[in-house]
Amino acid sequence: MSWTPEDEERVRYLLTVFSNKRIDQAEINELNEWLIREPQARRLYFEDTGLQLALHDQPQSKSISQEMRLQEARPRRTRSPRRAARKKPMSLWPLLGAAVAAVLCIIVYNYQSESQPSQQGTQYAANDVQLAAKSGSVWLDQAHTRAAQRDAWYAAGTQWFTADNGIAELRFTDETRIRLPQRSVLGLVRTHDRHKELHLYSGALSADVAAQPTGRALIIQTRHAVVTVVGTRFDIQCTGQLTQLDLHQGRVRFLDKTTGISHDLEAGDSIIARVPDKQSTDLQQQTEPVPVKKNQAALVRYAFDEGEGTLIRDSSKRGEPLHLNIGNSEAVEWQERKGLRISGVADIISQEAATTLSQAIKSSGELSIVLKCQTERINPLTPKVGMDRMLSLSKDFKHRNFSLGVGELTGDPTAFALRTRHHAGGRGVNGMPSAVTPPIPEQHKQEVMLLIVSRDSDGRIVFNLNGRQVHEEVRHGSFAEWDENYYLALGQEVEPSIIGGSRRQLKTDVAQARAWLGTIYHLEIYDRALSPKECMQLQDRLQ
Amino acid sequence: MSLEETRDELLKKAVSLRRMVISYTYGIVGSFELAEDVYQECIVVICNKADSFRPGSNAQAWIMEIARRTALGMVTKSYRKREHGISDDALAALANDQQAQDEAEDLLQTAVDQEALQHCLDKLSPKAQALVKQRYLDQLPCDEIASKAKRSLNSIYVTLTRIRKSLRDCIHKQVPDGGFE
């Protein structure tokens, strides 16, 4: 039996009626029949119900969130008696469950009693927060057993964890709002005078702070800095190595814990506090390169000094070279001394599958990419959710071992993204979601830059730009599922139709819409994570 | 693998399956709030029952079975009769179809994580946005929406069906070749 668009429309319609709880016997029988017989109907069930769930949870649309804020200005909607009744079984668990379950449930129950003041007639304290909006999973504990509920109020003393897909917006009674993006951990400190104090343990936050009462400034601490805020708007990002603050409006005092120095910042200022890097201090005095063992050398190295032709030679000394072919020479231009300018879909792809490269990285679980390049401009055809592809080890647009790109979500040519396929929790074959750097404000957009991205076997991904670490995040999982038959492509994703030199006939628009536009001067790929010391040495050698 | 490690792995898997568990149990309990409660209860059950999981067996199927039992238990406890619900055979077919779950999860995860959904919502007409808000944010029943708008119930069903179809297509369009960026 074939699955037609009419069938799809019918099943989706039945799901709409089902969700309205007005489905009649004939319709439910029909829906059940579809679900039992037709795999596409089952895919549609999960997809459409999941989409309804996402819409139900979706706080992001501007028009919708504006509406939500209007609602919040009015008295809060209280939970209907019917919904409240539905919640009751949860608080009865301790009577029904086994001993361990009882303990866990008592914790949940106590937690709810303590940290969710009643919805009616309660005056919230100045440092209580409401989860005003959320998307994806937001948890109140590290074990991810207590999900935060949208619209509920929580007392100071709670900790907030956003998952890989989680975004939370917290609102204080004075309309101060804190937005936590994915993979962030924030603690709300219980203080006696009820001033607002937050600890950002990792990740990032954006704050829009209402004017605070005299003597009760809002304080945000990270491991590297203390930020004292009277009323303003800013973003903070905290990684293992540094805390960066970008101030958009107003004034704040920033105490760098690593130096003990305070800075008064004004709108437009950015500042970074970082852990003193002994290694990099030592390095400044020691610039002699350390000899590299043969098995630690780059797996592939392209110097782009050919000056003409359609072959880019791999000059690495590890095994058989992996040369690249330029399929469309009209989209490239060799530079006078060194470098290759790419101005469109150039079809630059390895002459054969990059099996040795994939095997080596798969086996070590580590990867480093060294890329000296200059992004000319962001490709205007690339969709917002996409990125311009600088480099990719892939089979096509949806199957990859890794892709490195620029401009994902932000459209900014100084925001880089790495997608690595890794085995963790049954994730897909496309390497999503990417590890993405924020735009680097001090990097001039059209300058030549040396980007080194490394990922170690613990999943720590570090972006180093012009000798300075600009971003770090952790993506657990191994490369065990990497496919060894993928090709290496430059400036675009691999398309099956260009493998083996045949002309591209399909998906030209897709390729054009993701092509990276700029000049490449040097590229190396390693099967290990380069140390900060090696990054400094590469910086010296290649700049 | 120690019990601790097994429990951690199962919890990680359950977290990655959140949307699918909620979508699945929604077919039993009939509301997303209850389905979210079921999911949270499942997490507790997984913590308690991790020792009964046989390492190497199918964790996704095991979690879906816990979700099914928990959801059915919740319906029974609340003394609600499951009328016009998804049948047991259809539930079994859904629980066993991991490919359908994985494909849907891939689309939804990419859509939500990359804010494609927001982008697509912004592209809807103001009328369609208002309808989405009434139905999914304010959670008004379709009958009430129809009565306020002086439209037939069926026309609201058809419009909502088309809106979701267009959102799905818009999300899909941003990820070429039916795949993902």
Q: What would you report as the Rg of chain A, rounded to the nearest angstrom?
A: 27 Å
Alpha carbon gyration radius of chain B: 19 Å
Q: How many DSSP-defined strands of chain B? A: 0
Through-space gap between termini of chain B:
35 Å
Distance between the termini of chain A: 62 Å
Helix content of chain A: 10-25%
Give the % helix of chain B.
Answer: over 70%
* Cα shape of chain B: globular
Oligomer: heterodimer
How much of the sequence of chain B is in beta strands? under 5%
How is the biggest beta sheet of chain B arranged? none
Class from secondary-structure proportions of chain A = alpha+beta
- Which regions of chain A have little confidence, pLDDT < 50, spanning 5+ residues? 60-121, 278-294, 501-508
Describe this structure in words.
The complex is a heterodimer of chains A (543) and B (181). Chain A has eleven helices and 31 strands. Chain A has 543 residues and is of the alpha+beta class. In chain A, the strands form three sheets. Chain A has a 15-stranded mixed β-sheet that branches. In chain A, strands 16, 19, 20, 22, 27, 28, 29 and 31 form an eight-stranded antiparallel β-sheet that branches. Chain A has an eight-stranded antiparallel β-sheet with strand order 17-18-21-30-23-24-25-26, with no helix packed on it. In chain A, helix 2 (25-37) packs across helix 3 (39-57). The longest helix of chain A has 19 residues, at 39-57. The model of chain A is unreliable at 60-121, 278-294 and 501-508 (pLDDT under 50). With 181 residues, chain B is mainly alpha-helical. Chain B is globular, with a radius of gyration of 19 Å. Helices cover 76% and strands 0% of the residues of chain B. At the A-B interface, helix 1, helix 2, helix 3, helix 4 and helix 5 of A face helix 1, helix 2, helix 3, helix 4 and helix 5 of B.
